[in-house]
Task: inverse folding
């Protein structure tokens, strides 16, 4: 590390660090402070107490958290299974089509998730794109799958697919073809290659993809609101309600803190396990 | 063991199905936007573009579009500048707190945006700032500036640090190196980061939700109408927003192609 | 080479934390010479050249260029230039823009820059039409020449080279080695070159420095390094070699466990009571039926035969371990594997490496 690099690195990090200090770290500190304020105050100039946290248990908010975490976990597992073959094909099989797929998936990301979820409502509702046409052509009908737990998980899978697909493809691309061929050459079967060569070597991609989807899904709001009606309440929904209708900032902050600690802990754990230089660029 | 022909076919079909899966809802929205009926049911009986006419004539809509556009443009400009330097600190320079810095940048991306938005609301409140679209710009930056930085960083990783060293060796100072070598070489990364920043800001809803105050962006308005009281303008504006984004992407690709072709011919003639 | 040192290093040390990459180096590079630093990877040669160019700062010691101390001067203010291993040609500029870059930095007017660029294209035997070519349109050898032209553009006092040929294929490398030597002769510039390939160093250099663990083991003209290495490390680094332990008794008589020594044989460097290694290169070892007429000889069994193109190499098992022998193709042995032979060589073809080394 030479001195010039050290200085330039510090200077060029400064703008972004300032942005994040003012828009991320400081607000997080405010949330932490608010979470230990007495109920229904709108300033942090009060004696701290932990009443907001006790509500988490006494008023059943923990159920929302468990629902959110459970649905996020389910969605993550489903996404792993759905995305693995596709990520594999993107990294190793598809040539130009891989690029087409990438562009298609990235473009879908630019459409507000509201609009896309609303599109599913129009597609799946009674009298929607599928049921409406089915009834018109065959006379058959079915109940709308909307406003239930499985459809929320479906929404999570749909919205967070790119966040699993791309890290996974990147991870698989990091598995050298030679190692796979060498393993076959040494007599390994297809499943042995998968479990003993590909999965361990693609682990950074798997970790990043799973963490990203889990964490984003655990804090998701729109899926349960738009697709799920109010079948179950997601923790993010509780937080929003506490701030808006409830006008109880300390309660909202305490719920946020609980979510932040879980998510932040997982994120930090995951980020500390992977070598960013190796994933994103060459190793120096 | 090469992938067999049948496996390849299955994988291609699977890929096409996934693309279809991603775009089916947009097809529904597209059809809905040209249905004449105020309350939509499929199959659509009468098609009409009257909702488009209504949207274009509405002052609410033009206000929404202006707000969304202003926010997105500002977010783009600030993100690109911050990301240029941030990416160098992330990928290029070896300095003491580099790994800490890399992790700090990733954290906001992992955070639920709703929570980020609420945290910002409280932060602005405790500073005595009344939220408007200007505070929404700050809110978008939390999430978009790190993503833009990562995009530029990928580009920064792929360029040879010897290029900068060579320039310095031949007599260039730090500022000249940044202008003559680093900036032109990172340009493709900066353009895609700018594009991402604009589009992500244009489509973002959870960060705007609590931070725009009395102002409203397009995705916010759409959400409000979706969860409480349907408006036939919802699919129409949805389609307009999507088409706007895609036109921008295609235009950007076309310009990039044109520039590249231009450069090559000028290099030969000159 | 009577002129005073153009570039002088005095007690140069570079440490990275607790690791010392360059240890206390003194060096004088003469104006106009082709000086090559050779060493295995990790020997500190790359670190040393970065210090010389100004891309890293010395921890201790002084570097002088003529009568100016430059070790605190940053790279951009030193009148020297380096050709990088990766060449570091700017991909977003044309060949001409690359060559003119250092001149543009010095605010030269455009017509002068253009004239200089064309002069350099001529010097490096590149067609002038290459001025407008993009770097991506140039072949490996052409890029090499563009990099050289760019480095020469502002007429630096010294040109440094950081293994610029290492990524090229064998034939192109051979051609460019000769071109580089030729360019050195035509420009009269001082070239300082680092490489891990001794062959490359031998072809081009006036003087060679062998580097090991941050120090110079030996600095000498190429021939001397080959025939009279100062240490086992240098001897073995410079290609195939056979080494035999020797010692001299109090009366000066040579004693060896492996070799039969001609009676009355003396080695001037081998003082009574000392010991060391006797070096003989494979091409000087003769194979015969008996020991007659050799200063040194030993018995051995033919173990293997390897074709090296114009020469044939034999591995012969002896009490001293494997001994390597090389013959021209036309002098190929009729002996077969397993046959016992006598290996002999004479004192004038050997070199003695003292105990301390």
Result:
């Amino acid at each position: 590390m030479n001195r010039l690099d050290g200085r330039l690195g510090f200077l060029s990090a400064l703008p972004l660090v300032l942005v994040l200090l003012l828009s991320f770290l400081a607000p997080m500190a405010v949330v932490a402070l608010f979470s230990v304020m007495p109920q229904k105050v709108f300033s942090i100039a009060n004696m701290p107490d932990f009443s907001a946290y006790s509500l988490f248990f006494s008023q059943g908010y923990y159920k929302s958290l468990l629902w959110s975490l459970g649905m996020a976990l389910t969605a993550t597992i489903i996404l792993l299974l759905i995305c693995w073959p596709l990520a594999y094909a993107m990294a190793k099989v598809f040539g130009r089509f891989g690029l087409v797929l990438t562009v298609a998936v990235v473009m879908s990301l630019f459409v507000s998730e509201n609009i896309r979820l609303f599109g599913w409502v129009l597609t799946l509702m009674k009298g929607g794109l599928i049921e409406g046409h089915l009834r018109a052509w065959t006379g058959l009908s079915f109940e709308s799958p909307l406003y239930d737990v499985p459809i929320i998980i479906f929404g999570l899978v749909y919205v967070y697919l790119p966040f699993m697909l791309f890290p996974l493809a990147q991870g698989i691309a990091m598995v050298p073809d030679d190692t796979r061929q060498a393993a076959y050459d040494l007599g390994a079967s297809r499943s042995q290659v998968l479990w003993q060569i590909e999965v361990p070597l693609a682990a950074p991609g798997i970790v990043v993809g799973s963490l990203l989807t889990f964490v984003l899904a655990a804090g998701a709001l729109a899926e349960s609101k738009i697709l799920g009606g109010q079948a179950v309440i997601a923790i993010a929904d509780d937080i929003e309600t506490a701030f808006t209708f409830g006008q109880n900032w300390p309660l909202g902050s305490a719920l946020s803190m609980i979510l932040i600690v879980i998510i932040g802990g997982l994120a930090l754990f995951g980020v500390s396990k992977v070598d960013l230089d190796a994933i994103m660029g060459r190793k120096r | 063991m090469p992938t067999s022909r049948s496996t390849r076919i299955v994988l291609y079909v699977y890929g096409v199905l996934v693309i279809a899966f991603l775009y089916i809802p947009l097809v529904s929205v597209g059809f809905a936007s040209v249905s004449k009926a105020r309350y939509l049911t499929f199959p659509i009986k009468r098609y009409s573009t009257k909702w488009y006419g209504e949207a274009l004539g509405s002052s609410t809509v033009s206000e929404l579009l202006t707000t969304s556009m202003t926010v997105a443009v500002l977010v783009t400009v600030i993100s690109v500048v911050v990301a240029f330097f941030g990416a160098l600190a992330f990928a290029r320079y070896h300095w003491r707190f580099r790994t800490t810095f890399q992790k700090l940048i990733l954290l906001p991306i992992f955070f639920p945006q709703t929570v980020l938005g609420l945290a910002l609301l409280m932060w602005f409140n405790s500073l005595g700032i009344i939220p408007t679209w200007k505070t929404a710009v700050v809110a978008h930056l939390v999430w978009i500036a790190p993503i833009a930085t990562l995009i530029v960083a990928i580009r920064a990783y792929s360029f040879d640090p010897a290029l900068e060293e060579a320039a310095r060796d031949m007599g260039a100072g730090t500022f000249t190196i940044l202008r003559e070598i680093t900036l032109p070489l990172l340009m493709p990364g900066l353009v895609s980061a700018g594009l991402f920043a604009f589009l992500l800001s244009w489509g973002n809803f959870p960060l705007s939700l609590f931070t725009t105050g009395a102002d409203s962006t397009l995705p916010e308005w759409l959400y409000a109408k979706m969860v409480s009281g349907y408006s036939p303008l919802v699919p129409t504006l949805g389609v307009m927003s999507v088409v706007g984004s895609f036109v921008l992407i295609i235009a950007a690709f076309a310009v990039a192609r044109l520039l590249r072709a231009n450069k090559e011919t000028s290099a030969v003639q000159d | 080479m009577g002129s005073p040192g153009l570039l002088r290093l005095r007690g140069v040390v570079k440490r990275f934390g607790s690791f010392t990459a360059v240890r206390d180096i003194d060096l004088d590079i003469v104006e106009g010479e082709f000086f090559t630093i050779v060493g295995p990877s990790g020997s500190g040669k790359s670190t040393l050249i970065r210090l010389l160019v100004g891309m890293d700062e010395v921890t201790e010691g002084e570097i002088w260029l003529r009568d100016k101390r430059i070790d605190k001067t940053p790279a951009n203010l030193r009148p020297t230039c380096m050709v990088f291993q990766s060449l570091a040609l700017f991909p977003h500029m044309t060949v001409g823009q690359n060559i003119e870059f250092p001149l543009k930095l010095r605010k030269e007017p455009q017509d002068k820059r253009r004239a200089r660029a064309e002069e350099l294209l001529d010097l490096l035997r590149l067609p002038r039409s290459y001025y407008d070519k993009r770097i991506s349109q140039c072949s490996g050898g052409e890029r090499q020449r563009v990099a050289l032209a760019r480095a020469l553009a502002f007429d630096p006092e010294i040109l440094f080279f950081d293994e610029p040929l290492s990524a090229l294929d064998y034939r192109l490398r051979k051609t460019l080695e000769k071109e580089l030597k030729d360019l050195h002769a035509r420009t009269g510039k001082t070239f300082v070159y680092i490489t891990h390939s001794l062959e490359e160093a031998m072809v081009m250099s006036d003087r060679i420095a062998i580097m090991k663990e941050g120090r110079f083991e030996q600095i000498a003209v190429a021939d001397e390094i080959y025939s009279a290495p100062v240490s086992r490390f240098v001897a073995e680094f410079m290609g195939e070699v056979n080494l035999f332990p020797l010692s001299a008794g109090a009366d000066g008589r040579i004693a060896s466990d492996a070799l039969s020594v001609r009676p009355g044989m003396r080695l001037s460097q081998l003082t009574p009571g000392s010991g060391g290694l006797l070096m003989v290169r494979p091409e000087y070892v003769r194979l015969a039926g008996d020991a007659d007429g050799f200063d040194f000889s030993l018995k051995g069994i033919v173990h293997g035969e390897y074709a090296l193109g114009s020469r044939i190499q034999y591995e012969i098992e002896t009490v001293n371990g494997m001994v390597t022998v090389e013959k021209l193709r036309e002098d190929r042995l009729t002996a077969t594997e397993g046959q016992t032979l006598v290996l002999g060589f004479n004192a004038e073809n050997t070199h003695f490496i003292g105990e301390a080394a």
In short: Chain A has a mean pLDDT of 82.
